[in-house]
Amino acid sequence: MKMIIHIFFTLSLVSSISFASVQDFCVADPKGPQSPSGYSCKNPDQVTENDFAFSGLAKAGNTSNIIKAAVTPAFAPAFAGINGLGVSIARLDLATGGVIPLHTHPGASEVLVVIQGTICAGFISSANKVYLKTLERGDSMVFPQGLLHFQLNSGKGPALAYVAFGSSSPGLQILSFALFANDLPSELVEATTFLSDAEVKKLKGVLGGTN
Q: What CA–CA distances, in Å, run from 90 to 7, 118, 165, 195?
């Protein structure tokens, strides 16, 4: 019986490896249907070297906003060649005092590398333990998939970082926007956050929420 189980496991492993090697890549076709695993594949005859290159990270993002920050993503389908490869990258610009509020990436873990400035970064585990670190130029930090995390420019000038993800489409949900930037009834927000009516309405007003 153990031998049968071993053979079945080996065959399953070989089968999965063979399946993964059926094609070299799956360049995203934005005109085709999208599934949880990514975009449909572009016709290989129409794929060029341009599909595997992306120049959008060279320019700084616009940080003239409420969070004084900008994220420039290189995700599929804009960066078509990474579709299905399990990787992606983004540029993070933080003006003085800029912040990426508490947020999660449900589809991937994240690695951040500081290029310029000083960034205070951290995440909160499912046991509500806080892992906090001040990062200088050349430092990096990893944020496990699905956990709440943030980045704050704690220096005296602008900060720049690049972040890499273990998915071509990591997803994003910003906690404060989820609570205060939509039409979730204020009484429900108050009941689930223990904030006062005045506090909830103030935050909804700042972030554009209603109801």
A: 43, 18, 8, 34
